[in-house]
Write a structure and sequence with these properties.
By secondary structure, the protein is mainly beta. The chain has a single domain, classed as N-terminal domain of TfIIb, CATH 2.20.25. Helices cover 10% and strands 28% of the residues. Strands 1, 2, 3, 4 and 5 form a 5-stranded antiparallel sheet that branches. It is globular, with a radius of gyration of 11 Å. The N and C termini lie far apart (30 Å). The relative contact order is 0.23. This is UPF0434 protein C8J26_0169.
Length: 60
Amino acid sequence: MSALDPWLLERLVCPMTRTPLRYDEPAQELVSEAAGLAYPVRDGVPVMLVEEARRIDAPA
């Protein structure tokens, strides 16, 4: 498991909402709370395609 570069994380935004992302290191995902999507990080490379993102459940 590789950590995501903090410099890169500060610059990435959700391609759907243009809001900041939260890095979930154990799941290797970048989470967009605003869009309800989790973008995968594969081999240290964020996959910023909406088609590749996983839907997440909104908090109750």
